[in-house]
Design brief:
The protein is of the alpha/beta class.
């Protein structure tokens, strides 16, 4: 995809894919989504990749990595301790303090609780939750 791609991560849950990370332009974001959508058996692509300016990239990738790692670790611990949230049904990524939740909640209440937990963590700027709400089959 070129040398301007900063970082892209993918998470998969029930044949759905969530893309997160950062690129320098919209075309790269779209290309990553198209490549992923073309993979056999992928049902849905949630392209949450953020487009950032080169100046922002140089601001401190290591600093952002540390902050995001701390946020992701806190989400893991808090979701594990939370009553009414099945942590194994969720995936999450933090990109520069923007948290993306993905997976499946069994109820709207569970989904709201997971979102609230992530929103309550220090240094979280925003939370985007694209988890499905669907009871067990």
């Amino acid at each position: 995809m070129g040398s301007d791609v900063i970082s892209i991560s993918s998470d998969v849950y029930e044949q759905d894919v969530m893309l997160t990370g950062t690129v320098e332009n919209e075309a790269q974001k779209e290309q990553a989504g198209a490549i992923t959508a073309a993979i056999e058996d992928v049902k849905t692509v949630h392209n949450q990749i953020m487009v950032v300016q080169p100046v922002e990239k140089e601001k401190g990738a290591v600093e952002n990595f540390v902050d995001d790692t701390v946020i992701e670790t806190k989400i893991n611990g808090l979701l594990l301790d939370a009553r009414g949230v099945n942590v194994t049904n969720f995936r999450w990524r933090s990109v520069g303090g923007h948290v993306f939740l993905f997976g499946r909640a069994l109820t709207a209440e569970e989904n709201d609780k997971a979102t609230g937990i992530a929103e309550g963590i220090d240094d979280v700027i925003s939370v985007t939750n694209v988890a499905k709400i669907r009871a067990k089959d």
